[in-house]
Backbone:
């Protein structure tokens, strides 16, 4: 069953039609998950992040300003929380110590107390970050530090446990050769591991590295790529380079030690909306407006590994960081059936289990063809 | 001696040539064998007689002659084979095996996973709630603004005028060097639903930008083979004011659906069948052919058609998500020749 196999999905993708898709690359299947059973454009997924305990839970930020909790073990939505305040969609979603951090387009960053009750309480903390926010990102090593940036909204690093003022406020670069002010449009931010540095990619096709530890507030390194706005960015496993994507579907790997282009990745035809690298394997997941999820191999050799057509425009993705992609335990199916058919004979249960064990491939192909249709087996619950 | 023979063979008529030619291979073979008897026998393509190929004749005229003769031979054999096959088919009558279907690029098309299945709920929902939903739910009716790039020449102006007779409720405006990004908010405030910009280069129209207005996608096409009304042979009289019917052929993939819906949203919903006019957008191998006809049914099965209005061919270059913003807009699909055109049997629309 698609819902039960949800924990083995490798990539989770949020779409503009409000459907959360789980893709299993071993079995080459994609399954749809919706809160209400029907896709709704008002619930377009704009932000995804992992829940508190590892990868068992996921927080899904929707366009109607609700944050839903999704359990990857069961494959169901478990609760939702309405997070009002400010205007626009979610630009960043994070969680730390049982609290939820949200940031919206108009610059209201709020920290909510995340208890199981669905009551919409007042936020624990509220910060005004400045209008036109394009991204809010949490530092994975210091979960109470977040960085925000946007259009005409310079990079700021906030300490949620500290004061209301940002810890680091970036300064714009010097005027260009015509003595004109260089516009600011930070589209994506990443924290570099094992240091205090941050990398941003801008809508004016620049990649910049900032170092709060150094006395200069201006970027330490600046590199440009292409002629179109860079929309998404991710760090590679080694931590020396970033991979950026732009609105034309061009993906490039840029080395941060020298600021030069290492190589490009082909295949995308539409604007890149989500990029994520696996923390240890050289794999990159990318999704965009051309409705296809692609997994590329970044090195030796660089190329496309998997390509999955998912019928809606894809907004954001989460790549599972687990190590064991290859070994998928296959004995889930027979173990489920005896639990469901409690009323029927044990004989029937064992017969059904044996049949399923004999034809696991047929089941899987059926599921591949009809990811969302209800199963016709008796006594089975719907996905 | 061989040389003299060859020369005479070359200058005389065909009958003589044929005799000479039949002797020639043996002579050449003999000569060759004589030349290479000491060396290794090179394994030639023809096994018996130890052959030579026409391409080894150094004399161009002779070589050409031999080639034409060989070609004629091939043609004769092919005709003979065809005749024989036909006779066999007639002899078998009903029991003849079905005729083999010839391979064309269209039926060798590689499988495209984005081809829309009519029963697909997700795609149906996506289409029902996209930017064209307000048109397809009959909430808005189209109002088109047609303009060109700056300072257009005669052909482009005439094409614009003819297009405005073909598309109902359309207005042509002179582009006074205005920026599209400034025109678009003005159009939106005046309730236009679509903007068509015909780009011109060296006095001929070569591009079309079609932008659906409130916040809809913008498609950029390459336009070629433009024929104005007076260049169309055996055409009918000018089109009337009746609203035409639309035919959209062969837009099968998801991208094709989006583009097809864009074209459909240019025309009002209620075609007036009295006018007997039809606009066709036919997609074949990623080229979209636009034709405008008037039809008349002479009987149940026989139709007569007259081609009216302008005719042109479009090829999609990019589909951008918002209204026209080529620099900072997000693209849904961009045509990348070196990545997408590697296979002759792969099409995207």
Residues:
């Amino acid at each position: 069953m698609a819902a039960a196999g949800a924990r083995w999905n490798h990539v989770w993708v949020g779409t503009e039609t409000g459907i959360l898709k789980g893709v299993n690359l071993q079995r080459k299947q994609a399954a749809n998950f919706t809160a209400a059973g029907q896709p709704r454009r008002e619930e377009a997924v704009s932000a995804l992040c992992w829940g508190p305990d590892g990868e068992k839970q996921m927080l899904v930020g929707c366009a109607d300003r609700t944050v839903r909790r999704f359990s990857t073990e069961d494959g169901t939505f478990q609760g939702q929380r309405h997070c009002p305040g400010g205007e626009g969609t979610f630009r960043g979603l994070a969680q730390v110590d049982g609290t939820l951090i949200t940031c919206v387009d108009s610059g209201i960053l709020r920290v909510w107390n995340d208890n199981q009750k669905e009551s919409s309480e007042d936020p624990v903390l509220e910060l005004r970050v400045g209008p036109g926010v394009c991204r809010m990102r949490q530092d994975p090593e210091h979960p109470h530090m977040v960085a925000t940036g946007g259009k005409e909204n310079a990079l700021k690093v906030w300490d949620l446990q500290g004061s209301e003022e940002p810890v680091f406020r970036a300064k714009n670069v010097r005027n260009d050769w015509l003595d004109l002010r260089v516009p600011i449009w930070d589209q994506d931010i990443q924290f570099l591991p094992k240091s205090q540095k941050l990398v941003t990619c801008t809508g004016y096709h620049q990649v910049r590295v900032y170092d709060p530890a150094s006395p200069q507030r201006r970027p330490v390194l600046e590199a440009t790529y292409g002629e179109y706005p860079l929309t998404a960015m991710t760090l590679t496993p080694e931590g020396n380079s970033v991979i950026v994507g732009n609105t034309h579907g061009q993906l490039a790997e840029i080395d941060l030690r020298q600021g030069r282009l290492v190589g490009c990745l082909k295949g995308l035809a539409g604007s890149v909306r989500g990029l994520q690298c696996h923390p240890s394997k050289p794999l990159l997941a990318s999704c965009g407006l051309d409705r296809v999820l692609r997994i590329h191999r970044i090195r030796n050799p660089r190329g496309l590994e998997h390509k999955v057509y998912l019928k809606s425009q894809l907004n954001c993705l989460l790549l599972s960081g687990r190590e064991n992609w290859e070994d998928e335990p296959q004995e889930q199916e027979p173990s489920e059936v005896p639990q469901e058919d409690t009323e029927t004979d044990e004989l029937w249960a064992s017969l059904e289990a044996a049949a399923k064990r004999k034809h696991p491939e047929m089941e899987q192909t059926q599921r591949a063809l009809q990811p969302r249709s209800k199963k016709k087996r008796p006594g089975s619950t719907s996905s | 001696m061989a040389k003299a023979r060859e020369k005479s063979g070359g200058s005389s008529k065909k009958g003589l040539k044929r005799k000479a030619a039949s002797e020639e291979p043996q002579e050449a073979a003999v000569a060759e064998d004589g030349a290479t008897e000491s060396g290794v026998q090179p394994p030639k393509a023809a096994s018996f007689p130890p052959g030579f190929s026409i391409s080894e004749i150094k004399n161009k005229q002779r070589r050409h002659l031999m080639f034409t003769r060989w070609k004629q031979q091939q043609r004769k054999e092919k005709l003979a084979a065809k005749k024989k096959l036909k006779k066999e088919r007639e002899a078998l009558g009903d029991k003849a095996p079905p005729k083999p279907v010839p391979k064309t690029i269209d039926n060798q098309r590689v499988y495209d996973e984005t081809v829309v299945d009519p029963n697909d709920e997700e795609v149906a929902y996506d289409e029902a709630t996209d930017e064209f939903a307000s048109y397809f739910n009959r909430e808005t009716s189209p109002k088109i603004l047609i303009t060109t790039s700056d300072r257009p020449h005669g052909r482009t102006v005439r094409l614009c005028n003819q297009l405005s007779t073909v598309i109902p409720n359309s207005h042509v405006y002179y582009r006074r060097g205005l920026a599209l990004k400034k025109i678009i908010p003005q159009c939106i405030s005046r309730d236009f639903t679509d903007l068509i910009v015909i780009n011109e280069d060296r006095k001929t129209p070569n591009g079309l930008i079609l932008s659906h207005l409130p916040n809809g996608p913008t498609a950029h096409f390459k336009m070629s083979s433009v024929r104005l009304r007076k260049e169309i042979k055996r055409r009918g009289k000018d089109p009337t004011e009746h609203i035409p019917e639309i035919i959209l052929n062969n837009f099968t993939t998801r991208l094709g659906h989006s583009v097809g819906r864009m074209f459909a949203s240019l025309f009002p919903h209620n075609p007036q069948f009295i006018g007997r006019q039809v606009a066709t957008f036919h997609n074949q191998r990623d080229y979209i052919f636009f034709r405008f006809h008037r039809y008349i049914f002479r009987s149940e099965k026989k139709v007569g058609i007259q081609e009216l209005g302008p005719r042109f061919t479009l090829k999609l270059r990019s589909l951008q998500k918002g209204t026209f913003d080529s620099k900072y807009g997000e693209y849904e699909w961009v045509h990348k020749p070196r990545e997408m055109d590697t296979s002759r049997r792969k099409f995207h629309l």
Remarks:
- Chain A touches chain B at residues 17, 19, 32, 38-39, 41, 203, 227-229, 231, 247-249, 266-267, 269-271, 289-291, 309, 311-313, 372 (CB under 8 Å).
- The helical segments of chain A are 332-340, 346-358, 360-369.
- The two ends of chain A are 7 Å apart (CA to CA).
- Chain A has a mean pLDDT of 85.
